[in-house]
Design goal:
The structure holds two protein chains of two kinds. Chain A is an alpha/beta fold. Chain A contains 17 helices and 20 strands. Chain B is α+β, with helices and mostly antiparallel strands. In chain B, strands 1, 6, 7, 8, 9, 10 and 11 form a seven-stranded antiparallel sheet that branches. Classes of the chains: A alpha/beta, B alpha+beta.
């Protein structure tokens, strides 16, 4: 069988079950294809004819008088025999179909003879004709660089970036994309997005290998519930992790392995414990929830890996700084940066007199008296110190702090240091909520991720440190 | 599929290169006394029979045997216990004899296990041993095989990390020896389908003391072979 590229680079796309009704998936898919900028030929198919979103509607796939390489099915499962007949006529006449994304539900996931029969009919036809099938019962694919979005997810921001995400759950995929579209900058950039549904043909393992091998992918996210081929799944992810970070959200802590085993060891082993061990073994980062998955992927995509264990906490307030310290102390991965006397002097000179500098080491409380300039200059002083490998930057909005000016100053300064060859990850948590959207937006639009809370910033840093240690030892 | 009880299990461990407790099989009172003399008192004496996998529940273990008279008494008592379970000496009787073993006291107890998961295939486990194994479930897992460096990381993922470094004034444990044992077992699991499951429990690590080097010792083991 050909590889999965036909799902992304197809020339000509027919949408079966296209609809003018805004409450139908068949309309949202067309709208998403248009929003993504798909310009290789988009053809709504529906027996009722007419026009949808300005596009003429075709009565069947074989009636389209232009190349069609991809078919998206959003019609009820009961229509499968008719849809397969249409596709068969097209293959007999033009033979140009390469891929089918079946978004419709009502197939083998129902675990009844009718649903399984429809799936077998569709999958069998595709296989005989060398056509790749995604689904049924999947949300579909997005490829921002290839300007294609076969999903019915509402409001995706089609911003190019280095994150790819493959998911066994369409809903978790939609959750992530909708969250990203709601971020302060108006959209987190990404590359490929794949949901696999019933996996009648393309499965989660092939999908993660495909997205991972894509050169535009800088960080790969995976949501899995489990796989009967768990070893092949983990080893495939491991092959990607040797080159670029892989972040996995694995759910479902079932213990079928434990029930099957009779020994003492077996009673302690569940499949989840094995996934955990295998992730540690192969440098695969595990996220505990969707928020952590998102934070970690954004950090990996945008930030350089920390080159050591020295971390500096630059905070404008006591409490949030302690939250950082607590979260850091749950790992043994870091040491407070022991900055030089010259750095301490530089901090003293650029901060308000009441600032607490390096008591304890690796920590400066610049206090609520600090203005935008104090924030930027102290961050620069810390970044210039060789003992600092990463900075946690915490500030709380006050009405007299010019957050937007601070954010612009940070972007300018970080980019200036990069040109000097000083490129270290900064993890900003600008608190909180709607008060900080503008400043976070300025940072993120310039490619600097920000975090909702100090502990979430720390966890993103921890994930990056673990991965950089893995890369160092597997060199 | 067959289970190996302690005696052949210890022999298999020796073959894999895992240090075990010193032991001898004895099929008579006199042999037991001679074995105990060679090993040095105190010793442990355990029933050895293919069918008896859980000796303690049957009362088939005598610990802290200090002299010849105690060896003879323990031998008689254990053989009588075996008889109540229908296990007797002689051809077809099922009783192989008794194992005479050195007594190991002190040290840290760990559990090392191996098994085959339907999806993951061969895998190994390391954890804190002793009576709290199942309570705390302080374990870590890896897919087999692993090398020594990975085995060491696996050990250090558990609270054994504190024990390895030396805990409450004891000397550090031999991490390299523990990691080596774990790595060799994982490699044996992966090399063929011969071993379906095994448990080494307890696996004892003794710190260096009074000029004697640190030592690791498998005290008891079970294997399930294909």
């Amino acid at each position: 069988m050909p590889d999965m590229r036909a799902f992304f680079d197809a020339k000509g796309c027919a949408v079966i079950g296209a609809s003018a009704n805004p409450t139908k998936a068949g309309r949202q898919i067309l709208a998403n294809m248009i929003a993504a900028g798909y310009d290789r030929g988009l053809f709504p198919v529906n027996a009722s004819g007419g026009e949808i979103l300005g596009l003429p509607v075709y009565a069947s796939v074989d009636a389209i008088d232009a190349p069609v390489e991809l078919v998206i099915i959003a019609a009820p499962a009961a229509a499968t025999p008719d849809i397969v007949a249409q596709m068969k006529r097209r293959m007999d006449e033009r033979g140009d179909l390469r891929a089918v994304v079946c978004a419709a539900a009502g197939f083998a996931e129902l675990k009844n003879a009718e649903g399984e029969g429809h799936q077998a009919l569709l999958a069998g036809f595709c296989k005989e004709n060398g056509i790749r099938l995604l689904g049924p019962n999947c949300v579909g694919v997005i490829d921002v660089n290839n300007k294609i979005d076969t999903t019915f997810i509402a409001g995706t921001a089609h911003v190019p970036g280095g994150i790819s995400f493959v998911s066994q759950s369409g809903a978790v995929g939609a959750w992530l994309l909708m969250s990203w579209a709601s971020m302060p900058a108006g959209g987190v950039g990404f590359n490929k997005f794949i949901t696999v549904g019933n996996m009648a043909d393309a499965d989660i393992i092939e999908s993660l290998a495909h997205a991972g091998a894509d050169e535009a992918t800088r960080a790969l996210g995976v949501y899995i519930e489990g796989s009967p081929e768990s070893r092949r799944l983990v080893e495939t992810a491991a092959a990607v992790a040797r080159k670029k970070p892989v972040v996995v959200l694995k759910v479902g802590r079932t213990d079928e392995g434990a029930q099957a085993a009779s020994s003492h060891t077996g009673s302690l082993a569940g499949s989840d414990a094995l996934y955990e061990g295998a992730f540690n073994q192969y440098g695969i980062v595990r996220a505990r929830n969707v928020e952590e998955l998102s934070d970690t992927l954004r950090a990996f995509d945008a930030l350089p890996l920390p080159k050591g264990d020295g971390v500096f906490i630059l905070t404008q307030a006591g409490g949030p700084g302690i939250i950082c310290v607590d979260e850091l102390s749950s790992t043994n991965l870091f040491k407070p940066s022991l900055v030089s006397d010259a750095t301490k002097q530089a901090l003293k000179e650029c901060l308000p007199p009441i600032a607490s500098i390096c008591h304890p080491e690796g920590h400066a409380d610049i206090t609520a008296a600090a203005g935008a300039e104090h924030h930027v200059r102290s961050l620069e002083a810390v970044l210039r110190d060789p003992s600092v490998h990463a900075v946690l930057f915490i500030t709380v909005a006050t009405l007299f702090l010019d957050l937007a000016g601070m954010a612009r100053g940070m972007v300018e300064m970080i980019e200036r240091l990069r040109k000097e060859g000083i490129d270290k990850p900064v993890f900003p948590a600008i608190l909180a909520g709607n008060w900080t959207q503008e400043s976070r937006g300025i940072l993120e639009k310039a490619g600097h991720p920000s975090f909702e809370s100090p502990d979430r910033a720390v966890r993103a840093l921890v994930a990056m440190r673990r991965y950089s240690l893995f890369r160092e030892r597997s060199r | 599929m067959r289970n190996l009880d302690e005696f052949p299990a210890l022999a298999l461990l020796g073959e894999i290169g895992i240090p075990t407790v010193r032991y001898e099989l004895a099929v008579s009172e006199d042999q037991a006394v001679a074995a105990a003399t060679r090993i040095g008192y105190p010793v442990a004496i355990k029933l050895s029979a293919e069918k008896i996998l859980h000796k303690t529940e049957l009362g088939g273990v005598a610990l802290g045997i200090a002299n010849e008279a105690e060896v003879r008494a323990a031998y008689k008592r254990l053989v009588a216990k075996a008889a109540t379970a229908g296990v007797v000496p002689g051809p077809g009787g099922g009783l192989r004899g008794v194992l005479v073993q050195e007594m190991v006291s002190g040290g840290s107890e760990f559990i090392i296990g191996g098994f085959r998961d339907p999806g993951f295939g061969p895998a190994i486990m390391f954890g804190l041993g002793g009576i709290y194994t199942e309570l705390f479930k302080d374990t870590s897992f890896r897919l087999a095989p692993v090398d020594e460096a990975e085995a060491a990381r696996m050990i250090l993922e558990t609270k054994a990390k504190a024990l390895v470094a030396g805990f409450r004034g004891t000397a550090p444990l031999d991490l390299a020896a523990l990691s080596g044992a774990l790595a060799r077992l994982s490699q044996r699991m992966a090399a063929s389908d011969e071993i379906l499951e095994f448990d080494i429990n307890p696996f004892v690590a003794l710190p260096a003391k009074d000029g004697r080097p640190a030592r690791i010792i498998a005290l008891d083991a079970l294997f399930k072979l294909s």
